[in-house]
Each structure stands twice: as C-alpha cells, then as structure tokens.
C-alpha cells in the first residue's frame, strides 16, 4: 500500500484560488492572488522535503495548467521542488482535458 499526501493551499476563510502571485488566476474577477506570499518561505522549506519524497503527483486540470509552464521552465538543479516535478510521473484528473504536455 502506498501513502497519499495531500498538499492543499487554502486560507482560513476557505479561499484556495491563486495563492502564489497576483496574476496567477483571475477567473471570476478574483483580485486577491498572492495571498499566501508571506508563507512562501515556509512552503519552500517544507515543500522541498514533501516533493522530493513523492513518487508521483496527482493534479486537477486547473492546477496542472497553471503549474506546468513554470516548473518545466526551471532549469536550476538547486530548485529541488521543480526538479521533483520535472523528474516524476504526473497524473491529471480531469473530464475536460484531452491532452497533456
């Protein structure tokens, strides 16, 4: 049996949209992107370990479409999060996505 670790970005008031930066996801007129910014140093510290220990990743369509252009462009071998994302299998759960890169 394998272990499934879930990483969920959500604020106390239930917002999960656009934690990373202001222009990340403006769907529905959302104007509060980047709300997780003050905690991103913690994300890198703990995320590095979590991502390095993962055997594969499961994404929803929207997260995959937002993240894929970023991690695939990172070539710094010292960025262990991007390295893990580039090196391991990714599975996208979607009923609308017909093709992934």
Summarize this, please?
With 101 residues, the protein is mostly helical. Helices cover 33% and strands 8% of the residues.
Name the assembly state: single chain
Question: What is the H/E order?
Answer: HEHHE
Overall spatial form: globular
The average pLDDT is: 82
Strand order of the largest sheet: 1-2
Q: Give the strand tally.
A: 2
Helix content: 25-40%
Q: Beta-sheet strand percentage?
A: 5-15%
Low-confidence stretches: none
Measured distance between first and last alpha carbons: 29 Å
Q: Nearest-angstrom radius of gyration?
A: 14 Å
Structural class: mainly alpha
- The helix count comes to 3
What summary fits the major beta sheet? 2 strands, parallel
Describe this structure in words.
This protein is mostly helical and 101 residues long. It is 33% helix and 8% strand. It contains 3 helices and 2 strands; from the N terminus they run αβααβ. It has helices at residues 40-53, 61-71, 80-87, and strands spanning 57-60, 90-93. Strands 1-2 form a two-stranded parallel ribbon. Helix 1 (40-53) packs parallel to helix 3. The N and C termini lie far apart (29 Å). The mean pLDDT is 82.
């Amino acid at each position: 049996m394998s272990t499934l670790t879930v990483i969920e970005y959500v604020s106390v008031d239930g917002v999960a949209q656009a934690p990373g930066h202001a222009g990340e996801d403006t769907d529905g007129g959302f104007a509060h992107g980047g709300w997780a910014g003050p905690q991103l140093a913690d994300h890198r510290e703990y995320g590095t370990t979590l991502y390095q220990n993962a055997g594969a990743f499961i994404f929803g369509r929207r997260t995959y479409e937002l993240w894929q252009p970023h991690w695939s462009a990172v070539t710094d071998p010292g960025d262990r999060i991007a390295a893990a994302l580039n090196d391991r299998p990714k599975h996208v759960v979607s009923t609308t996505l017909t093709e992934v890169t």
